[in-house]
Write a structure and sequence with these properties.
Blueprint (H helix, E strand, L loop, with lengths): L7 H14 L4 E6 L6 H9 L7 H6 L6 H4 L5 E8 L9 H8 L7 E2 L8 H20 L4 E4 L7 H8 L3 E2 L5 E2 L7 E8 L18 H5 L5 E3 L2 E2 L5 H7 L9 H4 L2 E3 L3 H4 L26 H5 L3 H7 L9 H19 L3 H11 L4 H11 L2
Parallel strand pairs: 3-10
Antiparallel strand pairs: 1-2, 2-7, 4-7, 5-6, 8-9
Helix pairs in contact: 14-16, 15-16
């Protein structure tokens, strides 16, 4: 078989088999013509909903033009990988919701409790590309997973791995939204796969549950209000008006996914990479507050959390500790905050002072 003479449908079936062997749950194939997505992207950027993520505005409409990002691209292979840890209990949504009601608990988004998904998906997508090249010959390709100006959810909705939920995340009937997306741009005219139909109906659970009302309309997210953005992407002071709503969420936020009825069908991963690391699935705020920078770097090695650095980690924890004090005045919490203030950076000091004023 070569790139000029191949049975597209047989090759697609082979790709699916390789993908399953590599831990992916589903793949699709999308066309590169995404012109009809450009008006929505432009409106979102013009509204400033990208917040401080200046790279999004800088890339502009390139996000909707795969051939500008990787010249020569003919198709985009979209891949879905489930990430619920293998030991996740049956009633995991209720368990996670209950933890949000315990102010002293430190809540890290489920996806970030194991190994950095960027590393896991990128390596496996590269292996998929190499297997494809071994069959068809030299292959122009590039792999992505949340790592470049790619409209990941849009590509997924056009090729089968999901539909766009009202919270803007991809959803699948058999997997909910607890999965990662990755893409393989190729210069090979693989057969396109069909989009899946949407099944949100009249449900607004995700919109109603958002602690900061960041989902300003169905399918429209204002990142400036999103706790995931505030705790991860945002590098400055967290707006005071939004701090109380953060509760005990110190890295990311899963609320819109926890209330989604489709996540009753969320799948556990088969990969040990996404197993919870000690300290990231059930620790107290005080335990994590005690981590100095060296401990933080050691405990988050190979984790997506390491990307935010120790200062933002402390900033997020200070807000959560302040919210814990609002719920229940605790001498140990106050002592821990006071004890760390002198050595803290000005950014962290500001959030410590806010916490102690609660």
């Amino acid at each position: 078989m070569d790139r000029h003479h191949f049975d597209g449908h047989s090759l697609l079936q082979q790709l699916r088999e390789w993908a399953r062997e590599l831990g992916f749950s589903q793949i699709g194939v999308a066309d590169v013509d995404m012109a009809d997505a450009e008006p929505g992207l432009q409106a979102w950027l013009q509204a400033g909903f990208h917040g401080g993520m200046g790279y999004m505005a800088a890339h502009g409409l390139k996000r909707a033009r795969p051939t500008e990002l990787v010249p020569g691209t003919v198709r985009v292979v979209t891949a879905r990988m489930d990430y619920l840890p293998r030991a996740t209990p049956a009633a995991w949504q209720q368990h996670e919701l209950q933890r949000l009601q315990q102010p002293g608990e430190a809540v890290v988004s489920v996806y970030a409790r194991g190994r950095d998904y960027h590393k896991v998906l990128r390596q496996r997508l590269q292996t998929l590309a190499e297997r494809l090249a071994a069959v068809v010959g030299p292959l122009g390709h590039r792999v992505f997973t949340d790592s470049a100006p790619v409209l990941e959810v849009e590509l997924a909705t056009r090729s089968g791995p999901g539909w766009r939920g009202k919270h803007t995340l991809a959803l699948h009937r058999d997997a909910g939204s607890m999965f990662f997306l990755g893409e393989l741009f190729v210069d090979l005219p693989l057969p396109l796969t069909a989009a899946t139909s949407a099944h949100c109906g009249s449900c607004t659970a995700c919109i109603d549950a958002c602690p900061t009302q960041a989902i300003v309309a169905p399918y429209r997210l204002d990142a400036r209000r999103c706790i995931s953005y505030l705790t991860i992407e945002h590098d400055g002071p967290i707006p005071e008006a939004l701090r109380p709503a953060m509760g005990n969420r110190i890295y990311g936020c899963d609320d819109c996914q926890l209330v989604c009825p489709w996540n009753r069908h969320a799948q556990r991963t088969a990969l040990p990479d996404f197993d919870e690391r000690e300290g990231l699935g059930g620790s107290t705020l005080l335990a994590l507050w005690a981590w100095d920078e060296a401990t933080f770097l050691r405990r988050t090695e190979g984790s997506a959390i390491r990307r935010i650095g120790h200062q933002r980690w402390q900033r997020n924890l200070a807000v959560a500790l302040g919210n814990a004090l609002r719920a229940h005045d605790d001498a140990a919490v106050r002592a821990a905050l006071h004890g760390a203030r002198a050595a803290a950076t000005p950014l962290v000091q500001e959030h410590i002072d806010w916490a102690l004023a609660c």
